[in-house]
Give the backbone structure.
Amino acid sequence: MFTIQRTHSDNAVRSMVAAISFACFVSANIPLVNAQTSSGSGVELLKSVGDIAMKVVSADEAPAQLKVLRGSIDGGPSDARWERHFQRLENGLWGLTVVSSGRVTSIRRWITLEGIVSLAGVGEIATQYDNTMLLPIGRSFVPFTTAKEVRAGGSQNTTALSGNLEGLIRPTLGAKTSYEQTYDSVSLITTTGLFGSSKTISKTYILRQTCTTENEEPASSLHPKLRGSYLLVSCDGGLDNGSTRSERFAYLRDSKLFVLLQTSTNGNGEKYKISEVEYAN
């Protein structure tokens, strides 16, 4: 638990709401693709979107099947850590479980297109803090502190996907590709403790991105245990609500998989440093 003043706690809640609006999502009663995630957590994908994605995925398994990455976050709290678990699904898509710990703890489970497009997911985020306020008693103001916990969870599901998806997941040096993704996001935010409350947020977003393949480097430059080479892919664009987004991926050739290296939303960014690598083969 950490202690912050009331103004800071309000900022913490707002930051959590913003993060969940982009990252978390409750399953709808719609036709779904029959596929499990890396954790078997029941992430469900709209069938029409799954059909589009599976037209471009490769049927061949990668020679180096990435299993787990762990590391730290530059730009976040000093104790912030992350880990990602990868599993290639029977339909050729990838299951991805992302765990982040530190001031805020989160777990997100996704079905992805080669790791670069998150098609559907579920997630939960939690943080604790002491909420301090001044209460008037007579002619004086007395500090009053209550312990609060904020939890948020929900689901996200892509409803439309278009663009040069085959070019996107098979990058070549100097190539530039674009795609557009529409997704529904539903999140439930609960605050416990004195003056606790619950709030549900439902929104639809349209994301437009253009991705450029910039250069090729040995994968060992990211971590000594990574195999083969990687292509640096930069994706820039934004949402229809005016928010900007920038992401940097390493496309690991031997794993046929994109790994997120850096992300920025409205100029606020994080870099992901890799400290541990595990392969399935």
Q: What stands out?
A: The radius of gyration is 20 Å. DSSP finds three helices and 13 strands in the chain.
